[in-house]
Write a structure and sequence with these properties.
The protein has four helices and two strands. With 117 residues, the chain is mostly helical. The two termini are 34 Å apart.
Length: 117
């Protein structure tokens, strides 16, 4: 089975060039998890949602939280300003998507896109 998303999304070891990568002086070279550990809560994903969730649980609820991320913190769409926030967010063409989804739904999406452009 081929990947449906752009190949960059599967390369966790190398961030995609972005404004964030070009202008940030922060470099969070954190250690990889090397052993079994435990906590009350594990948050998966170090983007906006995961970071804010972990911070909220620690600061407001005093919970023991571990955050895990496959790549760099903020590596995904968060660092690319929601770079995958487009239609479609994959290699699938609009015509292919239309053949899978109902014509009505695709027509509504097309109207929304027309208003945005």
């Amino acid at each position: 089975m081929s990947n449906i998303y752009h190949s960059d999304i599967y390369q966790f070891n190398k961030p995609v060039p972005s404004y964030w990568e070009a202008t940030s002086s922060e470099n969070l070279d954190l250690d990889k998890l090397q052993k079994d550990i435990s906590s009350e809560i594990v948050v998966i994903g170090g983007g906006y949602t995961g970071l804010l969730c972990a911070i909220n649980l620690i600061e407001n609820h005093n919970l023991d939280v571990i955050l895990v991320e496959a790549g760099k913190i903020g590596w995904g769409a968060s660092s690319r300003n929601a770079g995958f926030n487009c239609l479609p967010p994959s290699k699938m063409s609009f015509k292919k998507m239309q053949s899978i989804l109902s014509t009505l739904v695709c027509s509504k999406i097309a109207l929304i896109l027309k208003k945005l452009t």
